Amino acid sequence: MSMATADYDDGTIRCDDHGITIRRYYPWGAKTIPYASITGIETLALTGANQVRRWRIWGSGDFVHWWNLDPHRPKKDTAFVLDVGRRVRPTITPDDAAAVARILTEHGQGRWGRTSAH
Asked: Which of 33, 36, 68, 99 is deepest in the core (most CB within 10 A)?
């Protein structure tokens, strides 16, 4: 098994050549999503009406967005909702949102179009 070099890793979110790994997604571990499995990405500002969402430390409050365990989320202002073709969408808050947006855009190669704001 070869180890891919990480393009980004903040301890919670890791992006490498194969996909994105969301640590502490499940109580028992991480979830890895190959870039090819992502059908869309939505940028979600955690301000204004969505400010209450920054207090979702783990789990789901609406049975659509699934937030990995991130105790630093209340200090963050941007989330990414990953559409993987299922009802429940992994929602992440990387420490460096701009870096992850750039990496996701590069790996999307135009398949995802523009990210939409909520």
From this structure: 68
What are the residue ranges spanned by the domains of the chain?
A: 6-110
- Which pair of structure tokens corresponds to residue 46? 């955690």
Each residue's pLDDT tens digit, 105-115: 998 865 655 44
SS3 string, 41-54, reads: EEEEECCHHHHHHH
CA 102 to CA 4: how far, in whole Å? 18
CB 86 within 8 A of CB 74: no
Which tens digits make up the pLDDT trace of 5-55? 889 999 999 999 999 999 999 999 999 999 999 999 999 999 998 888 999
Instruction: Write the DSSP symbol of residue 98.
Output: H
